[in-house]
Amino acid sequence: MRIMPTYFEKKQLVTPGELLAEGDYLAGENTYLEDKKIYAARIGLADVDNKKVNVVALRAFYIPKMGDIVIGTITEVGFNGWSVDIKSPYTALLRASDVLSRPFKPQNDELSQVLNAGDLIVAKIASYDRAHDPQLTVGEPGLGKITRGQIMRVTPTKIPRVIGRKGSMISTIKQETGCQIILGLNGVILVTGKTPEDEELAMMAIRKIEEESHTSGLTDRITQLLKEEKAKREENKIE
Amino acid sequence: MSSLVTRVRLKQIEQMIEKGKRLDGRGLNDYREIKVEQGLIERAEGSARVLLGKTDVLVGIKVETGTPFPDTPNEGVQTVNAELVPLASPSFEPGPPDENSIELARIVDRGIRESKAIDTGKLCIEPGKKVFVVFVDVYVLNHDGNLIDASAIAAVSALMNTKMPNYEIENGELKIKTGYTSLPMKSHPVTVTVGKIGSNLIVDPWLEEEQVMDARMSMAINDDGNICAIQKGGSGYFIPQQVIEISKLVQEKAAAIRKKLGW
Amino acid sequence: MNEKPEKLIDKKGFRLDGRKADELRPVKLEVGVLPNADGSAYIEHGKNKILAGVFGPKEMHPKHLSLPDRMVIRCRYHMAPFSVQERKSPAPSRREVELSKVIRESLEPSVFLELYPRTGIDVFIEVLQADGGTRCASITAASLAIADAGIPMRDLVVACAAGKIDDTVVLDLYDAEDKLGAADVPVAIMPNLNAVTLLQMDGILAPEEFENAVNMAIEGCKKIYALQKEALKNKYTITKEEAEEE
Predict the structure, then answer these.
(1) Given a contact as 3+ CB pairs under 8 Å, which chains touch B?
(2) What residue numbers bound the domain in which C166 lies?
(3) Per-residue pLDDT for C240 more than 60?
(4) A150-238: same fold as A69-145?
(5) Confidence of residue B114 (pLDDT cuts 50, 70, 90)
(6) Which of A8, A15, A32 is best to mutate for the C interface (most C CBs within 10 A)?
(7) Chain-chain contact of A131 with C237 (C-beta, under 8 angstroms)
């Protein structure tokens, strides 16, 4: 059986409602199926993988998924836990019992001493469903309160691009800047370096990736940019 | 609005409509029984009460004097207000008019205004200075679906029932004489509302059907069979062919109602 | 304007602003104009100048405003006091309340509300200058703002009005034509799905004239839709070109 061609060219910019394909195709990310036709649901770049039509969204917001690593800000200290802003339509909850290694006694423990409004944490989504707000956990190595570094935000759909194929992009940035970088899947990124300049350099590279994520040859351009900037800095130091 | 109807019932309604019938035995294009009573509020210059099935709407007309609008110095003024009185439904809250009561008032207003139901040209007392102001107040007493058609029919009935005192101008002053005259009217518009459930169209949606339907289309038809106001409502949509289909269906139903009411 | 013009459309078919019966006023669109909004758009349609901003999806406060199984849309259509000939009071008028409702209902069918239960989006429309057809221009801009916010949609929503002046059915009435004309029919559609999400009429039209007007308005909508798509794509194409220049 002949498969009909799709109605777009590879990596074409499409808008919501544009007809992408008809017939024997599957509706992938940011698309929907109606009457055997597949339409775009968000603005982005259309692509087809096997028979699945996908749109890589240029603009989206984060919806929690179990197991995702996210970076959030404590907004409220409650009775038995904290409310956390994870830059999602849904507020996340971190239970006291998850943080305190011993049984929790409301009258004895002052939660604000452990984590207070304004604190930043790296956490994992422990549970989430349509009827309940996402629950977080910090009970794993690498998770918990953030004490140093700078925070930046990108559209969550760009995180895979920041990681790069097999982590090539993020490794390059870490290497060239000497920074530790934690990528929250909710689009919040923590950059910790030896100096603020190193951190600025890494953040600049990440911002460039976000702006040019839909172009090719980006990894090379970023590597080049980082080397050029570092060279400039060396020159300025000598002067 | 709170969900007053269970999912099982909603499914029942949808399934029956697919088969061309409604839960109260009506066909898709049938109206519920319409009963009109006029002149029940003596203090008002005109009044009418309409029962459309169990939907109950009372309209009172007050005629007072006032100043005309600057761009129509020789014409009377018409103003329509609607109250979704809390006793009419558990979903009506006391308070200032909400978007539903405002929309209802404006739909009824447009039907009357655009068809020139009230002959405002004959309501001038002193050009540029004094005219008659007709207050149309829609009072919903029981909500069992299709407030629009019931309110529109009640408003026109009330206007037809309205009597104004005779008057003359003496030395620039308004003097009331004995006797009354009927409110001058040029048209008697009928409004018909069609709801959409799935891909089916139903005339005169009843309360439970309104909870299932995804959109409604109301059209006001004047005595000549011309359309004088349209309002689509609800968060659903219509395909263009349905819009045209509805305009034809509405004409047919409006003519039938006009005949039945003797307008 | 103190004197009523004798004719709104002359024997040669030219309207008072020089347009022919089926001609649209010029339309300009820009996406992403408000830095603090999650999504935004600006439209100039004839002399109409309208700004639309979208916030969300976010949890609604108070909670009882939200629904357990779907997202809620809150829409506010508001006219600036200086937007019209005679200063308008900043307090919401009954007309603004009705328009807020019908505009919201024109946008709701386009959004996948069921995907984000217990949340809501706020759509704010500010009319900075008005010259007839503001509800249509507002819908066109608001829909772009929703797409700009990254909210999944079935289709964009685009709107345009048609009507009757003198005895002719015309496209896209401006304020003078709306006030002096015989009928005005604003229409909003989801162009790829052929779905009418807003339809109103005031005036008097014979059934055939009505059908004519609806078809004409839909054609007008399709022309504006091409500009909507372009404006949305323009926001993201610039960076692509800059990158390729390097």
Answers:
(1) C
(2) 27-235
(3) no
(4) no
(5) very high
(6) A15
(7) no
Q: What is the pTM of this model?
A: 0.91
| Cβ-nearest to A43 among C110, C190, C236 | C236
- Among C residues 160-189, those touching chain B with beta carbons less than 8 Å apart: 185
Question: DSSP per residue over B192-226, as a string?
Answer: EEEEEETTEEEES--HHHHHH-SEEEEEEE-TTS-
The residue in chain C having the minimum alpha-carbon distance to the alpha carbon of residue A133 is C118
DSSP state of A4: P
For chain B, domains (ranges, CATH) are: 12-261 (3.30.230.70)
Nearest to A61 among C57, C59, C156 (CB): C57
- For residue A29, give the chain C residue with the closest CA: C152
Hey, what CATH topology would domain A150-238 get? Ribosomal Protein S8; Chain: A, domain 1 (3.30.1370)
Could you report the per-residue pLDDT of C219-229, keeping only the tens digit for each? 999 999 999 99
- Nearest residue, CB atoms, A58 vs list C56, C155, C236: C236
The CATH number of A69-145 is 2.40.50.140
Interhelix angle A196-211/A218-238, nearest 10 degrees? 150
Query: Is residue C246 included in any domain, yes or no?
Result: no
For chain A, the domains span: 12-57, 69-145, 150-238
Tens-digit pLDDT profile for residues A160-191? 889 988 888 999 999 889 999 999 999 999 99
Residues in chain C: 246
C14 found inside a domain: no
Three-state DSSP string of B17-54: HHCCECCCCCECCCCCCEEEEECCCCCCCEEEEEEECC
Q: How far is CA A48 from CA A11, A28, A31, A218, B49, in A?
A: 9, 9, 11, 21, 63
Number of domains composing chain C: 1
Question: Does C112 lie at the interface with B, CB-CB under 8 angstroms?
Answer: no
Per residue in B121-145, pLDDT tens? 999 988 999 999 999 999 999 999 9
CB B233 to CB C102 under 8 A?
A: yes
Query: Which residue on chain A is closest to C143 by alpha carbon?
Result: A16
Q: Do chain C and chain A touch with ≥3 beta carbon pairs under 8 Å?
A: yes
